[in-house]
């Protein structure tokens, strides 16, 4: 895409307001690091070239407008840098990615630029491993322990399974939990497996409906369930590196079906990959699984989280840049990954990886927008600004216009009807007098 087209697409975004020029701030960027800075390409948006990609910069006004008019796009562009950030950092390039929120440390940090508070990610799956924050918080009670997967599956009752998801979501509301790493949906190949209690049954189609029932109902309560462990996670021994092989027909008919049901029929917003290799490829770097199947075939728009595999930018197995490029969005229980990826991008001027980080941020923000249980600190977000933002989301300009037209039409119709009645009465009086 042409540089000017990229800039114009931001500058002309619906509802954008303009507050200040940006080219003076972009000029602060060191020319030795960024020799082709598009510093004079407009007053409110600019871009710098990094390899085959561009990094976009925008003013505070544009970011505020994006949040108010379209939070989905705001999530995508949350990696953009505003004027104050660049100036405060003396033009250092690290400002470009400091707002990306991809690390999980029992939750995802706040991104104040898009009014996102911090949110927790609890463990499961037989109930939330989290205490109540509301109701029983003074007694420090923990959330309900529910029946195991094989138990609620054995009911053969769609409504009962939906109630399981419903009460799971209800508990999450009282715990202030936005995401949970549950339920488990792998195939129970043996009753002696150490995860047999977490999973549902030995039948892929059966699990398809169970998973969609549970995940879909929990989502109605605002809970994102990261269904796990996708996929072929069939043993505990050496599961951090074991290679699992299977033909495509069996994979599609049996092993992927529960996850497909959760994300399509259940409209889930979260999924966790597994520790093992699928063939010879680690599941969290399996681009065919995440990009072609999930994002492509299933049209999935939620977040993808890995299974707590510690690593770094140079790790041979859980390689951070490779995971991000392949489609992993959140690094489970690995709070340092965001900083590592930021360092990698700025040191290597890797525009391609930065773009993937933007995409991850978009999916994370979009998924969390579907959650109503974020436990962000109210002090992180200005209350008046939040109220104004929410009002504009709930009362777009066109709705006011439509309401005005309706009210005007009703008023005119009423006046005409009244005038007609008065006219008729006067005519009858004239006839009586005559």
Characterization of this structure:
43% of the residues lie in helices and 10% in strands. The protein has 16 helices and 12 strands. It has helices at residues 3-11, 23-26, 60-69, 71-76, 83-88, 149-153, 158-175, 204-220, 248-255, 257-263, 287-297, 320-326, 337-348, 351-369, 383-394, 397-433; strands at 37-38, 45-50, 53-58, 107-108, 119-123, 179-181, 224-230, 243-244, 270-273, 277-278, 281-282, 303-305. The strands form 3 sheets. It has a 6-stranded mixed sheet with strand order 4-5-6-7-9-12. Strands 1-2-3 form a 3-stranded antiparallel sheet. Helix 8 packs parallel to helix 10. Residues 14-20, 33-42, 50-54, 71-99 and 374-383 have low confidence and may be disordered.
Spatial extent as radius of gyration: 27 Å
What oligomeric state do the depicted chains represent?
A: single chain
Average predicted confidence as pLDDT: 77
What is the CA–CA distance across the termini? 82 Å
Determine the number of helices (DSSP H or I, runs of at least 4 residues).
16
Largest sheet: 6 strands, mixed
**Principal-axes shape call:** elongated
Order of helices and strands: HHEEEHHHEEHHEHEEHHEEEHEHHHHH
Low-confidence region ranges: 14-20, 33-42, 50-54, 71-99, 374-383
Structural class: alpha/beta
Tell me the strand order in the biggest sheet: 4-5-6-7-9-12
Helix content: 40-55%
């Amino acid at each position: 895409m042409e540089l000017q087209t990229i800039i114009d697409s931001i500058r002309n975004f619906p509802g954008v307001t303009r507050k200040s020029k940006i080219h003076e701030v972009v000029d602060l960027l060191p020319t030795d690091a960024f020799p082709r800075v598009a510093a004079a390409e407009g007053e409110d948006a600019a871009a710098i070239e990094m390899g085959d990609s561009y990094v976009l910069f925008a003013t505070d006004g544009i970011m505020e407008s994006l949040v108010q008019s379209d939070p989905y796009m705001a999530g995508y562009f949350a990696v953009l840098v505003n004027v104050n950030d660049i100036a405060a950092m003396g033009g250092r390039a690290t400002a470009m990615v400091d707002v990306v929120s991809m690390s999980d440390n029992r939750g995802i940090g706040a991104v104040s630029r898009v009014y996102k508070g911090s949110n927790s990610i609890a463990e499961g799956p037989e109930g939330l491993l989290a205490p109540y924050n509301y109701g029983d918080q003074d007694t420090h009670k923990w959330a309900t322990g529910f029946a195991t997967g094989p138990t609620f599956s054995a009911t053969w009752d769609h409504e009962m399974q939906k109630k399981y998801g419903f009460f799971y979501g209800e508990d999450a509301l009282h715990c202030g939990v936005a995401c949970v790493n549950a339920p488990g949906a792998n195939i129970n190949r043996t009753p002696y497996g150490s995860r047999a209690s977490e999973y549902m049954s030995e039948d892929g189609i059966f699990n398809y409906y169970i998973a969609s029932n549970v995940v879909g109902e929990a989502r109605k309560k605002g809970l994102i369930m990261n269904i796990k462990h996708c996929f072929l996670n069939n043993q505990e021994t050496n599961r951090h590196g074991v290679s699992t092989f299977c033909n495509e027909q069996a994979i599609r008919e049996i092993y992927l079906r529960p996850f497909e049901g959760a994300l399509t029929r259940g409209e889930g917003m979260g999924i966790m990959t597994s520790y093992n290799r699928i063939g010879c490829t680690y599941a969290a770097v399996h681009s065919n699984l995440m990009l072609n199947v999930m994002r492509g075939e299933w049209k999935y728009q939620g977040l993808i989280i890995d299974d707590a595999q510690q690593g770094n930018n140079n790790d041979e197995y859980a390689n951070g840049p490779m995971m991000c490029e392949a489609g992993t969005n959140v690094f489970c229980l690995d709070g340092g990954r965001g900083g590592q990826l930021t360092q990698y991008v700025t040191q290597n001027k890797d525009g391609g990886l930065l773009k993937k980080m933007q995409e991850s941020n978009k999916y994370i923000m979009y998924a969390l927008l579907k959650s109503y249980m974020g436990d962000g600190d109210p002090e992180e977000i200005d209350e008046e600004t939040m109220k104004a933002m929410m009002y504009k989301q709930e009362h777009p300009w066109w709705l006011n216009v439509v309401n005005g037209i309706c009210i005007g039409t009703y008023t005119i119709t009423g006046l005409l009807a009244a005038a007609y009645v008065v006219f008729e009465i006067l005519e009858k009086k004239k006839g009586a007098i005559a």
